[in-house]
């Protein structure tokens, strides 16, 4: 970036911002350098609705109660959860591996289907640490469920995923929850 | 609480730094460093506040030194604790590669062009009669079978290669690259971007002194950089300034060293963690529309 561009960019932005502030203070932080089609052009103040700002409105908390939270809240600690969900207990210190929860506090075990539902693959994601040890454990769990028959599995160490042939989502999820993950 | 600490500490020593830069803008480097060492500032210890975003992964939180930039000689101004979900994420090199490929492609327009048999000049008449010559039948000398004829399925200009990478792959690209940069010791944290002089030699000396390598990307939260650093880096093609909202995988990998201010670190952490934890994440999926922000 050359000198002129830098200064020009700065001055143009400053000019733009100053203009916006003068005319309309609703959007003090415009979407910088985004597409020009992304928002309407700022018009004169008479074009907008009359707004009367109220300080410390007592009833506003009831509106806030209805608004969805912007981020996923932390789970509420309870003795017992009727849905069967349980919070993560282990921090991975007692075993060589760790399975992280998702942002929604769920165990990351999923079912992938392909070939019109003919191939079902159980995917365990967000594995950290010794993924091969976890694969060994999960294989033994699955083989127990299959009455000792071998099961096919695949480890992606880079992305921390284990793929297991067949639909063993519930079994593996319960197993991981029992281990505290 | 964290914000209070940050604000307080900034109020304490940022005015000093600004005063320095105003009075001693043209002084030489040695005097500057001597003056800077005389001033004692409280160490800047910035712990991470996990109240809003508890770490999802179990990597240990990273810590980075906060370095000064008001003198060539390096001084540790404090420590900052970095959120493990942003700065100790799984280094997904595959996602980094996808980001790089996307950044190369979305702005690339291929201008390769070949003419079809209709566009090549001539070839309107039948070159020889259909029968009686003992030769193969042909209707045009610009047929693709002919030398100098048109091209079938050739490149047509302009061909755009625009596409959008899924939103959360872009987020993961940023966290992965930041983690990789930190792990490879290519990420440095500075207190601010207030350098005392507008001399380019100051920046050159500073980069040489601190082994920042052949190219440096300096990122601040604000898009208006102070005058001194703008003038100092103007003529240096290998030192670039970028606001935090422009941070991208390609630039981070293109530059040898990534230098973030404390403000930029806090801003990036807040934005990236919000994206990782937001409840309306599905709204970021779906087809890319031209008029979206």
UniProtKB/TrEMBL annotation, chain A:
Compartment(s) of residence: Mitochondrion
Record bears the keyword Transmembrane helix: no
A GO-annotated cellular component: mitochondrial large ribosomal subunit
The keyword Mitochondrion belongs to this UniProt entry's keyword annotation: yes
Keywords of the record: Mitochondrion, Ribonucleoprotein, Ribosomal protein
One Pfam family here: Img2
Domain of life: Eukaryota
Molecular function, one GO term: structural constituent of ribosome
Domain SUI1 residues, every copy: 116-180
Family: Belongs to the mitochondrion-specific ribosomal protein mL49 family.
PANTHER family cross-referenced by the UniProt entry: LARGE RIBOSOMAL SUBUNIT PROTEIN ML49 (PTHR13477:SF0), MITOCHONDRIAL 39S RIBOSOMAL PROTEIN L49 (PTHR13477)
Name this polypeptide is given: Large ribosomal subunit protein mL49
From TrEMBL, chain B:
Organism in which the protein naturally occurs: Drosophila pseudoobscura pseudoobscura
The encoding gene: mRpL4
Residue span of region Disordered: 120-139
Leader sequence residues: none
Any one biological process term the GO annotation gives: translation
Keyword list, A-Z: Mitochondrion, Ribonucleoprotein, Ribosomal protein
Superkingdom, taxonomy of origin: Eukaryota
A Pfam family assignment: Ribosomal_L4
Name listed for the protein in its UniProt record: Large ribosomal subunit protein uL4m
Protein's cellular compartments: Mitochondrion
């Amino acid at each position: 970036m050359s000198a002129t561009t830098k200064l020009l960019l700065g001055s143009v932005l400053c000019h733009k911002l100053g203009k916006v502030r003068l005319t309309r203070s609703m959007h003090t932080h415009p979407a910088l350098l985004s597409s020009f089609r992304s928002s309407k052009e700022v018009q004169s103040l008479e074009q907008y609705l009359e707004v009367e700002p109220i300080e410390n409105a007592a009833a506003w908390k009831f509106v806030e109660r209805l608004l969805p939270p912007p981020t996923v809240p932390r789970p509420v600690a309870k003795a017992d959860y009727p849905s069967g969900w349980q919070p993560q207990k282990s921090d991975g210190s007692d075993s060589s591996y760790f399975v992280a929860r998702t942002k929604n506090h769920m165990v990351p075990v999923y079912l992938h289907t392909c070939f019109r539902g003919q191939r079902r693959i159980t995917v365990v994601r967000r594995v950290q640490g010794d993924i091969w040890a976890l694969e060994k454990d999960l294989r033994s769990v699955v083989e127990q469920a299959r009455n000792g028959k071998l099961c096919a599995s695949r480890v992606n160490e880079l992305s921390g995923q284990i793929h297991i042939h067949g639909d063993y989502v519930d079994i593996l999820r319960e197993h991981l929850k029992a281990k505290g993950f | 609480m964290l914000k209070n600490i940050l604000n307080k500490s900034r109020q304490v020593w940022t005015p000093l730094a600004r005063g320095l830069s105003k009075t001693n803008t043209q002084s030489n480097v040695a005097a500057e460093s001597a003056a800077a060492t005389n001033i004692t500032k409280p160490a800047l210890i910035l712990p991470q506040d996990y109240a809003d975003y508890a770490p999802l992964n179990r990597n240990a939180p990273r810590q980075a030194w906060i370095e000064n930039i008001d003198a060539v000689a390096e001084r540790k101004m404090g420590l900052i604790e970095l959120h493990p979900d942003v700065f100790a994420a799984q280094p997904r090199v595959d996602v980094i590669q996808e980001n790089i490929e996307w950044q190369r492609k979305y702005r690339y327009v291929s201008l390769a062009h070949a003419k079809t048999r209709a566009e090549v000049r001539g070839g309107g008449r039948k070159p020889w009669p259909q029968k009686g010559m003992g030769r193969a039948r042909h209707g045009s000398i610009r047929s693709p079978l002919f030398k100098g004829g048109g091209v079938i399925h050739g490149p047509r200009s302009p061909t755009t290669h625009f596409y959008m990478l899924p939103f959360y792959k872009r987020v993961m690209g940023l966290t992965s690259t930041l983690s990789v940069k930190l792990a490879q010791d290519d990420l440095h944290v500075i207190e601010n971007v207030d350098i005392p002089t507008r001399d380019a030699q100051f920046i050159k000396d500073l980069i040489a002194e601190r082994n920042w390598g052949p190219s440096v990307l300096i990122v601040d939260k604000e898009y208006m950089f102070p005058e001194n650093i703008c003038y100092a880096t103007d003529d240096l093609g290998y030192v670039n300034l970028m606001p935090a909202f422009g941070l991208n995988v390609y630039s981070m990998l293109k530059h040898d060293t990534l230098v973030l201010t404390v403000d930029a670190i806090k801003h990036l952490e807040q934005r990236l963690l919000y994206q990782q934890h937001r409840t309306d994440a599905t709204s970021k999926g779906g087809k890319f529309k031209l008029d979206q922000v």
